[in-house]
């Protein structure tokens, strides 16, 4: 192989590598890579200890990443929700190890978008509404930003 042919191949390879690096830097992040914020909630149920926390920020229910621990009849959740969220509703998978799935009739709250931590107390009240369904009302109180 001649020296000029080798130089052309090295130059072509260098150009290709530079193009890939430039594309990787220039391509914007997708909307799914939204900045997250911390949501701390001390959750209790009318019928015992809650298991699992789901949230809805307006796009449907999901189980956010995070952690939890129980103390007494309260479960403390630290989860991560999108910083762009402007509404918040909570639910629990079940209360007191009772896997009955009630209809959710909880409450939605307006929240201020941003990266500050949100803390709140949560309460889920399970009740049978005669003659109809088993219903869960989940509410938040003492909502603060820090």
Question: Any overview of this molecule?
Answer:
The chain is α+β, with helices and mostly antiparallel strands. Helices cover 16% and strands 45% of the residues. It has one helix at 3-26; strands spanning 36-45, 50-51, 54-56, 61-62, 66-71, 74-82, 87-91, 94-95, 103-104, 109-110, 118-128, 134-145. Strands 5-6-1-11-12-9 form a 6-stranded mixed beta sheet, with no helix packed on it. Strands 4-3-7-10 form a 4-stranded antiparallel beta sheet, with no helix packed on it. Strand 11 (118-128) and strand 12 (134-145) form a beta hairpin. The longest helix is centred in the first third of the chain and has 24 residues, at 3-26. Mean pLDDT is 81; it is low at 10-31.
Q: What is the secondary structure topology, with strand pairs?
A:
Blueprint: H1 3-26, E1 36-45, E2 50-51, E3 54-56, E4 61-62, E5 66-71, E6 74-82, E7 87-91, E8 94-95, E9 103-104, E10 109-110, E11 118-128, E12 134-145
Parallel strand pairs: 1-11, 9-12
Antiparallel strand pairs: 1-6, 2-8, 3-4, 3-7, 5-6, 7-10, 11-12
What's the short story on this structure?
The chain has one helix spanning 3-26, and strands spanning 36-45, 50-51, 54-56, 61-62, 66-71, 74-82, 87-91, 94-95, 103-104, 109-110, 118-128, 134-145. It is α+β, with helices and mostly antiparallel strands and 146 residues long. The strands form 3 sheets. Strands 5-6-1-11-12-9 form a 6-stranded mixed beta sheet, with no helix packed on it. It has a 4-stranded antiparallel beta sheet with strand order 4-3-7-10, with no helix packed on it. Strands 2-8 form a two-stranded antiparallel sheet.
């Amino acid at each position: 192989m001649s020296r000029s042919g080798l130089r052309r191949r090295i130059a072509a390879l260098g150009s290709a590598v530079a193009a890939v690096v430039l594309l990787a830097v220039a391509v914007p992040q997708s909307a799914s890579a939204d900045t997250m914020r911390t949501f701390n909630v001390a959750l209790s149920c009318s019928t015992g200890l809650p298991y699992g926390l789901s949230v809805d920020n307006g796009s449907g229910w999901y189980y956010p990443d995070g952690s939890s621990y129980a103390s007494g009849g309260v479960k403390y959740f630290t989860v991560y929700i999108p910083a762009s969220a402007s509404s918040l509703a909570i639910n629990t998978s079940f209360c007191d190890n009772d896997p009955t799935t009630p209809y959710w009739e909880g409450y939605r709250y307006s929240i201020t978008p941003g990266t500050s931590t949100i803390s709140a107390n949560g309460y889920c009240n399970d009740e049978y509404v005669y003659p109809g369904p088993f219903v869960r009302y989940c509410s938040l109180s003492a909502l603060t930003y820090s």
